[in-house]
């Protein structure tokens, strides 16, 4: 078992900190301000490299070892969020229907998502196409930036 470590990378939305071990990524945080990039080891280094590729426009889907979700239901919700592809959006209700859940449960899962960007909860919106909430970075401003970056702008209100 490894001690927790981190990697840090500067992005257009702030410093992105990946927390975990060389084997798995446990958490992603979008932090205000700046700092020195830090590569990390193993999965953390790979995560930083993939996030850099995402923001450079060279990566549209992540392939990283993530810490297990705490429950089978949480894993189903995470898998459903990951299935919403780059440049697409899906409403909380529509995503819920894909796994036999409720829109509020999806909203709560998005709000508690410990892996923003990698598990793309920013791609989940309100049924009317408006953004809804976002718990990472600068909130809705970060969500809008990510969706505009991915080209999902035409579907947003």
Key features?
alpha+beta, 32% helix, single chain, Double Stranded RNA Binding Domain, three-stranded antiparallel sheet, 157 residues, 2 domains
Class inferred from helices and paired strands: alpha+beta
Summarize the amount of helix as a percent range: 25-40%
* CATH fold-level name of the largest domain: Arc Repressor Mutant, subunit A
CATH architecture heading of the largest domain: Orthogonal Bundle
Strand arrangement within the widest β-sheet reads: 1-2-3
CATH class of the largest domain: Mainly Alpha
Q: Spans with pLDDT under 50 lasting ≥5 residues?
A: none
Indicate the proportion of strand residues. 15-25%
Order of helices and strands: EEEHHEHHEH
Give the overall shape. Answer: globular
The rounded distance between the terminal residues' Cα atoms is: 46 Å
What is the average of the pLDDT values? 92
- List the total number of helices: 5
Major sheet details:
3 strands, antiparallel
- The CATH superfamily name of the largest domain is Winged helix-like DNA-binding domain superfamily/Winged helix DNA-binding domain
Number of E-type strands: 5
Oligomer: single chain
Number of domains: 2
Integer-rounded radius of gyration = 15 Å
């Amino acid at each position: 078992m490894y001690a927790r470590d981190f990697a840090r990378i500067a992005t257009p939305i702030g410093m992105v900190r990946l927390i975990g071990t060389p084997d798995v990524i446990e958490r992603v945080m979008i932090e205000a301000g700046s700092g020195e990039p830090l590569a990390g080891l193993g999965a953390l280094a790979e995560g930083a490299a993939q996030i850099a590729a995402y923001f450079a426009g060279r990566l549209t889907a992540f392939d990283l070892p993530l810490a297990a979700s705490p429950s089978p239901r949480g894993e189903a919700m995470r898998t459903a969020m990951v299935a919403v592809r780059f440049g697409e959006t899906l409403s909380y209700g529509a995503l819920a229907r894909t796994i036999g859940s409720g829109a509020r449960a999806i909203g709560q899962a998005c709000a508690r998502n410990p892996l923003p960007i990698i598990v793309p909860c920013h791609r989940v919106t309100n049924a009317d196409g408006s953004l809804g909430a976002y718990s990472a970075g600068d909130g809705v401003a970060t969500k809008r930036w990510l969706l505009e970056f991915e080209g999902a702008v035409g579907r947003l209100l």
